[in-house]
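ok, trying the design again with the full structure, not the truncated one.
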């Protein structure tokens, strides 16, 4: 087992370096290999790999199946402690498209998780959702006041 995990980590490291090279991304066979390495490392329950590949599939994936897989990987990464993934899922829940309607309560849950993990912009999004000018289903003055108090104590939170 050790050999396979080491090989997956090394191949993932190479694929991430190649991802920054335009010629590598434009080469179809190399791109397929790179995606295989991203998927393999995400299957090894590596939280940063899940966050990276989930983001890649959500925004650059081909078709709804890739988008759904990206959301699934971001969800796993957020539950694994990645604050950027939790924030990104909150923003995704607020998007309005032909395939989904905004879900402010679910977005608030993801923003709360992102805030717990220390994402600096999650507090401002939660204040928008919990404020009087936000959606009716998430309006909560008590929670908004708690977030304001927390933001006063933490200078990194952006409100």
């Amino acid at each position: 087992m050790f050999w396979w995990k080491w090989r997956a980590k090394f191949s993932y490291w190479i694929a991430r370096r190649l991802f920054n090279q335009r010629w590598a991304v434009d080469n179809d066979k190399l791109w397929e290999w790179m995606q295989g390495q991203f998927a393999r490392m995400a299957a090894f329950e590596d939280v940063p790999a899940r966050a990276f590949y989930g983001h890649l599939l959500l925004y650059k994936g081909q078709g709804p199946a890739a988008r759904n897989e990206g959301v699934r990987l971001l969800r796993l990464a957020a539950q694994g402690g990645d604050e950027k993934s939790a924030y990104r899922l909150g923003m995704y829940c607020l998007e309005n498209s032909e395939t989904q309607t905004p879900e402010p309560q679910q977005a608030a849950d993801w923003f709360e998780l992102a805030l717990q993990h220390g994402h600096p912009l999650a507090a401002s999004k939660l204040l928008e959702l919990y404020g009087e000018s936000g959606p009716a289903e998430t309006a909560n003055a008590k929670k908004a006041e708690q977030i304001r108090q927390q933001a006063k104590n933490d200078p990194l939170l952006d409100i």
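Keeping the full-length input from now on. The radius of gyration is 18 Å.
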